[in-house]
Amino acid sequence: MTPITEVEGRRLALSNLGKVLYPATGFTKGEVLHYYATTAEVLLPHLRDRPVSFLRYPDGPDGQVFFTKNVPPGTPDWVTTAEVPRVEGPARMVFVQDLPSLMWAANLVTELHTPQWVIADPGVADRIVFDLDPGAPASVVDCCEVALWLRERLAADGIRACAKTSGSEGLHLLAAVRPTPSDRVSEYAKELAVEAERAMPRLVLHRMTRSLRPGKVFVDWSQNAARKTTAAPYTLRARSEPTVSAPVTWSEVEECGAPDQLTFRAPDLAPRVQDYGDLLSPLLDAEDAGALP
């Protein structure tokens, strides 16, 4: 029988809690749900009012993995959904606004991805993001060098950057910006990516060309496009281990000397949140938002 639990007055059917989703560590679905429940306080503010896309892996990362933006079949009527404009036409999407919605989404076994805008103003960004993606033999250590350059460049324009791991091999740089059309944010991000390549030509690449990637850090500025999404802060990733897209301190970025120094798994996050709180809280404060030049 599928266990039924109540979360803030909402009844949820939570299935297969003992199922191992990450064979490399034996991490189970029940532990996935526990992880999201214990990080909800810092995670939910970064999801609120943003349409959520799901990268689902119900049988673990070695099973079927599929991406969906539409409301999944069987979604409870108490989960917030809304019509969202998209290039290919409007779609009804999910909004994870509270703990019951988060636990429902976690029960689907999914990565959580969001755009850089909220539903009140679709296509008008309140965040800028750079996805720093290393091409082997480059690693997150090289991403950190690029992140530090971008941090200073953004600061020169009055924009305060924060960093998080991608939960995979790279690093994400994010900053709050005053509401700006996504096209303009993408244009500005590309300008900085090109500048970074000029400043560090042996290390940085602003184009996605696969043949040029080995040994360099691809500064992906394109995720600022209104139609694009980025792995949300604190989301688990569909990797061999339960790695997390985890916020990091600038000291950790500056001192990173080996890739495993910036690899964080689900059990690591509770003590980090206890020690640091939400390192990405500046993204939530409108007074911290910078104006693009």
Secondary-structure map with pairings?
Elements (H helix, E strand, L loop, with lengths): L3 E4 L2 E4 L6 E3 L4 E2 H19 L3 E6 L9 E3 L11 E5 L6 E5 L3 H9 L2 E5 L9 E11 L5 H17 L4 E5 L5 E11 H18 L4 E2 L11 E4 L9 E2 L15 E2 L1 H6 L10 H11 L17
Helix pairs in contact: 1-2, 1-6
**Percent in helix:** 25-40%
- List unreliable stretches of 5+ residues: none
Order of helices and strands: EEEEHEEEEHEEHEEHEEEEHH
Mean pLDDT: 95
| Cα-to-Cα separation, first versus last residue | 58 Å
Classification by helices and strands:
alpha+beta
Report the radius of gyration as a whole number of Å: 19 Å
Number of helices: 6
For the largest beta-sheet, the strand count, sense and barrel status come to: 6 strands, antiparallel
Strand content: 25-35%
Shape designation = globular
How many β-strand runs?
16
Structure in words:
The chain has helices at 29-47, 99-107, 140-156, 182-199, 250-255, 266-276; strands spanning 4-7, 10-13, 20-22, 27-28, 51-56, 66-68, 80-84, 91-95, 110-114, 124-134, 161-165, 171-181, 204-205, 217-220, 230-231, 247-248. The chain is an alpha+beta fold. 27% of the residues lie in helices and 25% in strands. α1 packs across α6 (266-276). The strands form four sheets. Strands 5, 6, 7, 8, 9 and 15 form a six-stranded antiparallel β-sheet that branches. A six-stranded mixed β-sheet has the order 13-14-10-12-11-16. A two-stranded antiparallel sheet has the order 1-2. Its EC number is 6.5.1.1.
